[in-house]
């Protein structure tokens, strides 16, 4: 199989570059990066030389590689391997760390490898969603990005997450509901809802879930589907128009979400 590699800059998350590669013959010579890498091998095995040791990166392995660490990489055998990487700029990492920990800097760290197949699977799906950004909900990918990095840094004990307790105030909760009601047909971002409450995105995420019992994205999707049910009760309802009026710009996405929620397609409701 011919080697291939693709890079994509994320529109939803400035400072993030995504790469996906399939390698068999290509070898990474000894090198280092100026940005922070979160890497996943999703198929096959990569052999890596790092700090005088040989590491085998397999599916389910997550590697965090800080700037300046020298390493290499190649296929562990005759088979090819697939590598997905999140390349995080220092500025983006600093901002994320401040949101998650309440501190304005990220500590100096060595390379870390974490064996967690479930978390690796979540990161792989987020990588796919970010690369297919035109099909993804901005709030969904932004929320997943923050929550997964919170889990990743917590499990590796790299930083101490900022403990957030409490709930949204009644005024904040009302502002969020009113805004979503008015702008339901539009793309609603995490930043917009957090700003209504005068909160940072991560702080808002935590308080929202502690208030409602759902993530903002899950709650918003349900609101859209419930509103769709109301519109579908009209005998002359047009499925495409209903989908657009409640914020689904892709008909197949609307159909999948509706079937998952109610067990039938919108046309059968």
From TrEMBL:
Q: Which SMART domains match?
A: HTH_ARAC
Keywords, ordered alphabetically: Activator, DNA-binding, Transcription, Transcription regulation
The name this protein goes by in its record: Transcriptional regulator, AraC family
One family name in Pfam for this protein: HTH_18
Q: Which InterPro entries match?
A: AraC-bd, AraC_XylS_family_regulators, Homeodomain-like_sf, HTH-like, HTH_AraC, HTH_AraC-typ_CS, RmlC-like_jellyroll, Tscrpt_reg_AraC-type_HTH
Q: Which residues form the HTH araC/xylS-type domain?
A: 174-269
- Any one GO molecular-function label of the UniProt entry: DNA-binding transcription factor activity
Species = Paraburkholderia megapolitana
Q: Identify the SUPFAM superfamilies for this entry.
A: Homeodomain-like, Regulatory protein AraC
